[in-house]
Amino acid sequence: MSEDALRGNEKIIVWIANIINPLIAGFLFYYMWRKSSPNKAKQANTISYIVFGVEIIGYIVYRLLTNQPL
Q1: Rounded distance, CA 43 to CA 29, Å?
Q2: Residue ranges of domains in the chain
Q3: How far is CA 66 from the centre of its chain?
Q4: What is the overall mean pLDDT for the chain?
Q5: Taking the model in full, what pTM does it have?
Q6: Cβ atoms within 10 Å of 53's Cβ, excluding its own
Q7: Which helix (H) or strand (E) holds 68?
């Protein structure tokens, strides 16, 4: 089992994939790495939650600023 953390290009790929679709990307990265690299899996999952939360908050703010009902 590898105890490595996300580094360099891996971190960039995880962030970009999660910005595009945080639910599917987070799911894929987590289950891809959960046995071989649990730290990477945990970090990818955390990034997925962060991006999803930011996107939801951004959507709510956008709807409020444009006076559209939620």
Answers
A1: 9
A2: 8-65
A3: 27
A4: 92
A5: 0.86
A6: 11
A7: none
